[in-house]
Amino acid sequence: MQVIGLMSGTSIDGIDAALVTIQGKNLDLNVHLHGFSTYSYPRQLRQQLLDVCAGSPLSMAAFAQLDDAIAHAFADAAQQLQAEYGGSADLIGSHGQTVFHRPPSGSHLGYSLQLGRGDLIAHLTHLPTVSNFRVHDIAYGGQGAPLVSRVDLSLLGHPEKSRCIQNIGGISNVTFLPPLGQIDDHGSGVIGWDTGPGNVLIDLAVNHFSQGEKTYDRDGEWAATGEICQPLVEKWLNHPFFQEPPPKSTGRELFSPDFLRACLGDAQAYDLSAADCLATLTDFTARAIARNYQQFLDVPPDQVLLCGGGAHNTYLRQRLIHHLAPIPVLTTTEMGVPVDAKEAIAFAVLAYWHHHHCPGNLPSVTGAKAAIPLGQAWG
């Protein structure tokens, strides 16, 4: 079956689209990537999304218009991808664009909202579309995140080595995979959670210091010219989120423009330059990941495999290597799953599993009461 996976993460930097052929059942899958592209949001639409994620109010009419606009952008990406790579898909799996995420608390279910209507994507592309992947996990008491851990197990599990699959998007999340021989059919032993900020604070700071001329720190070049302020890193790591045990999830609601403003306010006492602030925020991101491993893993992994946009940030990767030493830090590309395409591939797989009535979540990761198929089908 040929499936298109569509994904836009918390960095809101565009729509990742992957065209794959998937064969097999349950965890025993063969996935072949035919083509991958990232399609930028129109500038005005991206800014509107950033504003909404930062708390800007919308009327219901404007909300509906935004939902439709994102669906059109996702449908266009699916059609362009097929035209570019000559494919003819049977199914679309669309994550949509997260604009709000609230983890569960006590007896209260969580809430997660992804815009980009699956019914409209199905209507525009004339292809069956699976969307709204998070809601069923949340309905079963789960976090609704991270959702790709079962895909990580299927595609990146190793017979003998334990691995941390570390995604660094706007928000960072990890899946810990024991050796395959130690994992049963229900994924027992696999754990995962959101580790905290990925690129989000760095990107916001770059935009701030460049007065809107830049949206990210390419290869970490700007941060690499600065000096890290370790007292600030230690202070920021005292935030309660980092002390919470898994399962846990977060988003731009916490690691927000307000969070960055507080960080920059803290930095004033140390007379830091823009480069110093970026170096400190980058090290904070790396330290947060390493601290999560130290606090919540019984044993360190044999390997760490990076994916997501942050895997391209050379300085961030250097800081991770430093803080995780002597654990080897590699990329999923080196294991056959391209760094940039991995999340889009994952939602193609989740749609495939939904089509075959196969569970998509791992309760040991999300905290849900059961393993269930994820998503709603349209068309």
TrEMBL record:
Catalytic activity: 1,6-anhydro-N-acetyl-beta-muramate + ATP + H2O = N-acetyl-D-muramate 6-phosphate + ADP + H(+)
UniProt-recorded name of the protein: Anhydro-N-acetylmuramic acid kinase
Domain of life: Bacteria
GO molecular function: kinase activity
NCBIfam families, sorted: PRK09585.2-2 (NF007143), PRK09585.3-2 (NF007148)
Gene3D superfamilies membership: 3.30.420.40
Enzyme Commission designation: 2.7.1.170
Native organism: Candidatus Synechococcus calcipolaris G9
Keyword Kinase appears in the UniProt entry: yes
CDD domains given in the database record: ASKHA_NBD_ANMK
Primary role: Catalyzes the specific phosphorylation of 1,6-anhydro-N-acetylmuramic acid (anhMurNAc) with the simultaneous cleavage of the 1,6-anhydro ring, generating MurNAc-6-P. Is required for the utilization of anhMurNAc either imported from the medium or derived from its own cell wall murein, and thus plays a role in cell wall recycling.
Amino-acid positions noted as binding ATP in the UniProt annotation, renumbered to this chain: G9, T10, S11, I12, D13, G14, I15, D16
Record gene name: anmK
The family this protein is said to belong to: Belongs to the anhydro-N-acetylmuramic acid kinase family.
Main enzyme class: transferase
PANTHER family, alphabetized: ANHYDRO-N-ACETYLMURAMIC ACID KINASE (PTHR30605:SF0)
Keyword tags: ATP-binding, Carbohydrate metabolism, Kinase, Nucleotide-binding, Transferase
Chain coiled-coil ranges: none
Pathway it works in: Cell wall biogenesis; peptidoglycan recycling; Amino-sugar metabolism; 1,6-anhydro-N-acetylmuramate degradation
